[in-house]
Amino acid sequence: MANNKPSEAGENAKQKDLNKNTVSGDDQAMTTNQGLKINDDQNSLKAGQRGPSIMEDFHFREKMTHFDHERIPERVVHARGAGAHGYFESYENLEEYTMANFLQKPGTRTPVFARFSTVAGSKGSTDLARDVRGFAVKFYTEEGNYDLVGNNIPVFFIQDAVKFPDLIHSVKPEPHNEIPQAASAHDTFWDFVSLMPESMHMIMWVMSDRAIPRSFSMMEGFGIHTFRFVNKEGKSHFVKFHWKPKNGVHSVTWDEAQKISGYDPDFLRRDLWKSIEDGNYPEFELGVQIIPEEDEHKFDFDILDATKLIPEELVPVKIIGKMVLDRNPANFFAETEQVAFHPGHLVPGIDFSNDPLLQGRLFSYTDTQLIRLGGPNFHEIPINRPVCPVHNNQRDGYGRQTINEGQSSYHPNQTGGGCPFQSAMKNGGFTHYQEPVSGHKIKERSKSFFDHYSQAKMFFDSQTAVEKEHIKQALTFELSKVSREDIHKRVVAMLSEVNEDLAEEIAENLGLDLPVELDMDLNQSIPADGDPEDYQSGPAKPSVKKSESLSMSFRNGNSVQGRDFAVLAAAGVSSKSIEALKKMASEKGANVKIVSTKLGKIKSAEGDDIKVDTTFLTSPSVIFDAVYLPDGKDSAEMLTKNPDAILFVNEMFKHCKAIGMDGQGKTLWEATEAHKISTDSGAELEKIGVIANGDVDGFLKTAAKHRVWDRSSSCDIPA
């Protein structure tokens, strides 16, 4: 087996490899794609100044042909995404569990490329649609590329890959009118899931705030499936992968998501790009749940069922390393768009389980790359190239870049001296785990997959009161967009298996009479020769009643790194007040922006010129994490007469974000409806996240919590 080289070796090798096709264009003469210098790029070749164009103009034809073909098919799913380069650093030696070389030595750094995405929408849709988020990482290891291809939700809608086309067809725009874009709130999606009880656990997650993250750097990632670790002795352990964000797990509210989609549909992509440019590098720790082979059947659910998770109370997550994303792509298309992930890209020491959804993905991903990236040589695109040598007998095909020398392209051979030769397992050759397999060829599902509601109930019961309320609002919004009452009834009947109060409230919101009877043809969701009774689970009985790890409120973290704070200012503002905030916030990695009525500079109370970063018109409250009202009598009085400033503060209060103020800044606060409601309720300002008297430290600590959900009256704000 090859030795793991020092941490920088892989990164340098990868960068060197990428640089082969990197062209800056600085101080270079324009040429055709064949290198011919171009004399005139402003006019096509014509027969006379006003005559017809001539086919002989090879430069025009090359340029136009390339333009006509420069769009490739977008991904069917995960079309809209953003990516970044970085590294993975191992914390410890895991040779007890796996022979994967990049996990053998503490401190080993492996280059990575990560891509985050939405699932349902097209490339042109908004970042903040309610949706699952893709979380895929390509490790450029010395043993080859390893892809960990997952989502920000640990379970999935379906148990068997044969249903994946049906799922995606249902959630995509409806075929008769191509409406709606990037949304699940329509008839076909809810018709499908209402006939697929196995989807109910995933529905709880997607209707939660996990589906509208504040930032790609503030969401968890999961491998979803159960994989295997295999050590040098051939001993196997089952494993599930978790990415834990350093900045905590945070979301936006649904009201914010809709408004941000109008103001800045690139909100999450912009945030990732800017965070890296500012040096606020997103960081995630990689954790694993390791299950001994002999414990495969000790749970009251099947660990091969992708609609189930293993509660952390039963198997704790072991943290084994961290990923730091510290470099933006040089070219979006060449890297983020052309990167090709595949759960079948493995290294020795990591292998598959028999999860039927995972097994189907192993076919689908290669098949997808063939049509998207033009043929079988997608691995030669720079972003997909391994950092280790590649030697095999594959030749030719669209887009081939390697020039293979020699006479032989087959094995075994003597014309090539027997090369490339096979590698034994002890020399780093990949060997599939030798799992005993027996049984009849049959299209059937294990009865251990039939409990569809227990973990859905566990998830809902594990949420805080605020999170439960958001799930109810999401379900009401989605189902109110569904036109058919029979779909409403089926969904409510399924929800009653999760939580009776939840089902009753949704039924009331949809105008349904209670109780709602289960009205569906069970035979639609089972094999033609199956017994309906066999495919319906009994009452939900979760093995863990409540799991703290499932609630975002227990994943908050205590960092303001990468957060955006607004300072509302006008002429006469105190520059000292602003600088006090800026100094402490910048030390903690937060961004402070001056928001005013127009761009340019404003004169401070101390006579300084203060540069305005943005305006109320282009930067509303919803794109900031907190607001600060600085000292300065003239500034505060001027802003009290500005309805945009009043709305800004009211919305901040409505969305339960931190509000800080210093000195005369309280004048603006006292002019808002939020102040009136707070005063009438007798609330102590600090307890509801309104920090006065220039307490910058208190303001930052409150902002680090992300939300102050104790504002029970915030929904009354007219904003």
From TrEMBL:
SMART domains for this protein: Catalase
- For bias kind Polar residues, which ranges apply? 20-46
Q: Where is the active site?
A: 78, 151
Q: Does the keyword Oxidoreductase apply?
A: yes
- Provide the residue positions that the database annotates as binding heme: 75, 115, 164, 361, 365, 372
Native species: Echinicola pacifica
What's the protein here called?
A: Catalase
Q: Where does the Catalase core domain lie?
A: 31-419
Cofactor(s) demanded: heme
Q: Name one GO molecular function term.
A: catalase activity
The entry's function note states: Decomposes hydrogen peroxide into water and oxygen; serves to protect cells from the toxic effects of hydrogen peroxide.
The chemistry this enzyme catalyses reads: 2 H2O2 = O2 + 2 H2O
Cited PANTHER family: CATALASE (PTHR42821), CATALASE-B (PTHR42821:SF1)
InterPro entries on file? Catalase, Catalase_AS, Catalase_clade2, Catalase_clade2_helical, Catalase_core, Catalase_haem_BS, Catalase_immune_responsive, Catalase_large_C
Q: Which Gene Ontology BP terms does the record give? A: hydrogen peroxide catabolic process; response to oxidative stress
Taxonomic lineage of the native organism:
Bacteria, Pseudomonadati, Bacteroidota, Cytophagia, Cytophagales
Q: Where is this cross-link: 3'-histidyl-3-tyrosine (His-Tyr)?
A: 342-365
